[in-house]
Amino acid sequence: MTARPNFPWRRAVLFVLFATSCTFLASLGVWQLHRAETKRARYTEFSARLGAPPVDLANLPADYSADDYRWRRVELRGEYRAPDVLLDNRVQQGRPGYEVLTPLATPGGKLMLVDRGWTALGASREAPPDAPPPDGMVMLTGFLGEPPVTGVAMNAAAARIEQLSPDMLRVQQVDSAALAPLLGQEPMPGIVYLDADAPGALAVDWTLPGDGSARHVAYAVQWFAMTIVLAGIGVWNWRRTRTPHD
Length: 246
Fold this sequence. Notes:
This protein has 246 residues and is α/β, with parallel strands linked by helices. The protein has two domains: 8-46 and 212-242; 54-194, no CATH class. It has three helices and nine strands; from the N terminus they run αββββββββαβα. Strands 2-4-5-9-6 form a five-stranded mixed β-barrel. The mean pLDDT is 81.
């Protein structure tokens, strides 16, 4: 009965290989747990802000940060004014249309872009849709958020502002600074997303953020399971190299 030649360097290489792989897989699991905790914290903040008493936007300082009030319930009094801004390529239940943003002028001289919701495409791309806002002074309720997500602007055409009519613009992305010359002044930070029963609301179906942490926890469990399996294979190989054979 002869002993198998002993190669310490071979065991060392295997140990380093398996240890490095296990560390990498475990770090992926930890990263997913961190992502889950981040999303839980974000959702907790979202729920707290959305459940807080409404803020009167007219009373905020001119230099307020939209991030400080994101997802906050808001109230705003003023008059809708032209032009409407149509955000292109917005599909609802398989139907093409626009998201309609209309400036609201406050009695104090401020301007806020109000997202009134979705409306269907007109008879053609050249025909403006029929979605006028109500006249006169209105009291609006909704929540403050960031401009609608439209994907990545890959070329200059995405930033072009089209004039469909004297009172209607069409854009591929909402850029308040670029719209300011056509609106007459710079809008207040953020976008007000109308409640469904607010004056001027169209088809309102806002997708609010969810918790989203469960998916990351599931991914973390998978990475940790792979770590355990790989570690078991490594231990089995290490023990096998130390066992004498005939």
